Amino acid sequence: INTWRSQFSQLTFIGEIPPKPTGSVTVLPPIKPNDGPQAFPDAEKENLPVFTMDYPRIQIPFEITLWVLLASFAKIGFHVYHKITVWVPESCLLISIGLIVGAIMHSVHEEPPAVLTSNVFFLYMLPPIVLDSGYFMPIRPFFENVGTVLWFAVVGTLWNSIGIGMSLFAICQIEAFGVQDINLQENLLFATIISAVDPVAVLSVFEDVSVNEQLYIVVFGECLFNDAVTVVLYNMFNFVAEMPVVEPVDVFLGVARFFVVGLGGMGFGVLFGFAAAFTTRFTANVREIEPLFIFMYSYLAYLVAELFAISSIMAIVTCALTMKYYVEENVSQRSCTTIRHVIKMLGSISETLIFFFLGVVTITTEHEWNWGYILFTLLFAFVWRGLGVLVLTQIINPFRTIPFNLKDQFGLGYGGLRGAISFALAFTLPDNIGRRQLFITATIAIIIFTVFIQGISIRPLIEFINVRRTNRNLGTINVEVHCRLMEHTIAGIEDLCGQWSHYYWKDKFLKFNNRVLRKILIRDNRAESSIVALYKKLELQNAMEILDTVSGDISAAPSIVSLYEEKKSSAKPKKKFMAADLRNMHDLLSKNMYKIRQRTVAYTRKHALPNESQTKEILMRRHASIRRSLRPGSFQSSVVPKSHKYFSLPAGKSLDSKFPPGRLSHAGKLSKPSLKGCTLYSNQLPHMPYGGLFC
Amino acid sequence: MKISPAHIIRLYDRFEFLDKEGSGQLRLEDFAEVKELAMNPIGDRIIGAFFSPGQETVDFPSFVRILAHFRPTDKNRAKDSTQPEPVNSRTSKLKFAFQLYDQDRDGKISRAELLQVLREMLGMQVTEEQLESIADRAIQEADLDRDDAISFEEFRKSLEKVNIEHKMSIRFLR
């Protein structure tokens, strides 16, 4: 083709085309390449191109990759200088970088990537984040607080929307602001958009402030579940904004729609969750693609919910909650790890991108600014949320086992940040709303205000008012140690009693679960020893192997044998302790004493997988001390009580198959596990040194 | 005030659930199966508290008797010295905690026993010297008769300002 083209253009250079012969066929005269001036290089001698470039072909994936990389570099960059992330939440930094990039792009008159539409946001960027939140949601605290969560999510959002809408409408009547053309429905619509508390923004701020578990769960849950209300209200007001008159029938339909949206979302979620669990029952032979099912089913739940315009966030969260329990039992250890890591990664990327683009788009969209409207919006958003929290907590506190005090309420109110969801909703406003640009600008203003001002200041404020931190000078070392011991005791007894507390439904569900659900959804449902499951989960097998091969000199692990030796060295002179020493001790204790059931620790690092090192330490230590106490020489001391001697190594029959054969060889002869009663007495030991544990 | 029948039934359900063999008695392994107890730093001690010295199994009445320690204290109980101390009184709760430390049942928490508990409750980064100073200091604070050990009375005295009734109670056992 190229040669033809070049020859053709040569032809035009030459001059006129000779007249066509009248007749049937039109034929161009033969081309004589050697005639006329050689304007182009000799076409027949063109060589094979060594280096070509074809940008348009790869443009879209290339730009996406570059944006993702850029945002990720920003993330790396923040952590290079530690001090920044202490005071400024990551979301603020990302938005700032986005603003800078947006400004650069604006100044060179580039358009932001065309992929940044609200469709992309809702279909591609939001699901990973919500899946991340749902999958790692701490289940027990969540269900203990489910009433409060729903109360705040539903009633709180309603309160906020209607309150802000009405107040703004009142403001609109004032002539001075020049916004009289906004009618009530449009105000309500706008209010709905901006009262949606955003999980992405809130969690990224709360991660830096170690809040207590209750507060975290309630805010977290509220963010996730207010989506149902927001969707309904948004659609309702959207629909209604076009109508001149609102009838009571519409309000009633709105309520009905709310139930459809909320319950429908949950229903779809549970359905897909069970489907995923059931599927993983049969994946024993296709381990490599096991993680895929999790993602596909969750995403499917999301999309199907979007199809029916019901709350997709609730669908995906419920799906993740439902399937996690069963899937993690069915799936191999590696798949489990892969799933967790990939979910975290996707969630992290999405979040980074969202904030980044928020910054970029802020600069590049057209704005319509109206001082009065926007300032009053900020004011009302703040005021109504505060009032809402106060009133709602008063009502719900009597029903709570742990009532919210004022500090918690402050955290709840002040922690209501708006974020990308409001932003995307603003962009999907239909064009027939007159003041669309104003709404978009106002939304962006609110988001930036809450994320920056509230986000940065929440940490110092919470530290300032939070006296729940252990007061260092209160109490002696004795009190601190003994109190922690008592807390562990209570936690242990509660766990022993099985948390049945006074929840009738939970009991019922657990029974149903054990009898029916587990049989259907879990492959191979023998009553696997829960200890084995725990060890598997913590991947302690490798650790144990190492412990075994190193011949017992683990200096960090405490030894029960030393109990005997200690008694000799009692004649030490009394030490004098300075105040500084005491302070150090208190410090040491508060930092290093194991926390109860790892409650708050797990939730404060949002971007990390749950930290299980505390559990690993405890278990390894116990394992090491058991090993040590089993050495033949160590039984001179009759001081060692029986209760120290055994423990938590499983009585399950299948245990020896879980551990590699190497460890059994340490035990020498191991009799086949038919023994159930594994109490150890010193007289048994010579016969079954190590294997006695593994019966 | 007795435990309500509904609670007893629930506790019995739980007892049966833990008793994997159906023998009507709980053994060490049954307790060990509860994985949260395995993750508890003093899990062994808690389990040990259920077994009387020399016993290898726990029957249901003993199970309930130990758990009864954690019922909330009846504040209105008249101090009647002729009746035996109820099992959920402040003193009894303190005694329970004391016995978690005092594994050899000699009535005193020796320095070694305290050190052992500290080892179990603190992370691995804490050095042995630090542990020993903490233990020394604790004994110094509480030990009034200078025998380098903490007796039950000294233990009780050191915790006189702490609300034991609240700390060592489980609300749902009311």
UniProtKB/TrEMBL annotation, chain A:
**Compartment annotation:** Cell membrane
Q: Which residues cross the membrane?
A: 64-81, 87-108, 120-137, 149-172, 184-203, 215-237, 258-279, 299-321, 342-365, 371-397, 409-427, 439-462
- Bilayer topology annotation: Multi-pass membrane protein
Residue ranges annotated for the Sodium/hydrogen exchanger regulatory region domain, each copy included: 556-660
GO cellular component terms, A-Z: plasma membrane
- Report the InterPro entries cross-referenced here: Cation/H_exchanger_CPA1, Cation/H_exchanger_TM, NaH_exchanger, NHE_CaM-bd
Which keywords describe this protein according to UniProt?
Answer: Antiport, Cell membrane, Ion transport, Membrane, Sodium, Sodium transport, Transmembrane, Transmembrane helix, Transport
Which residues are in the Cation/H+ exchanger transmembrane domain?
A: 69-462
The record's Pfam families line, in alphabetical order, gives: Na_H_Exchanger (PF00999), NEXCaM_BD (PF16644)
GO: which molecular function terms? potassium:proton antiporter activity; sodium:proton antiporter activity
Some GO term, biological process aspect, for this entry: which one? regulation of intracellular pH
Q: Which domain of life is it from?
A: Eukaryota
What's this protein's family per the entry?
Belongs to the monovalent cation:proton antiporter 1 (CPA1) transporter (TC 2.A.36) family.
Family annotation (NCBIfam families):
b_cpa1
Q: What is this protein called?
A: Sodium/hydrogen exchanger
- Give the organism, scientific name: Myripristis murdjan (pinecone soldierfish)
Gene expressing this chain: SLC9A2
UniProtKB/TrEMBL annotation, chain B:
Which keywords belong to this entry?
Calcium, Cell membrane, Cytoplasm, Lipoprotein, Membrane, Metal-binding, Myristate, Nucleus, Phosphoprotein, Protein transport, Repeat, Transport
One GO cellular component term noted in the UniProt record for this chain: nucleus
Tell me, what is an example of a GO biological process annotation in this record? Answer: protein transport
- What InterPro entries does the annotation carry? Calcineurin_B_homologous (IPR051875), EF-hand-dom_pair (IPR011992), EF_Hand_1_Ca_BS (IPR018247), EF_hand_dom (IPR002048)
Q: Which GO terms describe its molecular function?
A: calcium ion binding
Reading the lineage from the top rank, the first entry is: Eukaryota
Q: Which SUPFAM superfamilies match?
A: EF-hand
Q: Which residues form the EF-hand domain?
A: 89-124, 130-165
Q: Where in the cell is it found?
A: Cell membrane; Cytoplasm; Nucleus
User: Where is it mainly found?
Assistant: membrane
Return the similarity comment.
Belongs to the calcineurin regulatory subunit family. CHP subfamily.
PANTHER family reported for this sequence: EG:114D9.1 PROTEIN-RELATED
Q: What is this protein called?
A: Calcineurin-like EF-hand protein 2
Organism name: Myripristis murdjan
Gene symbol?
chp2
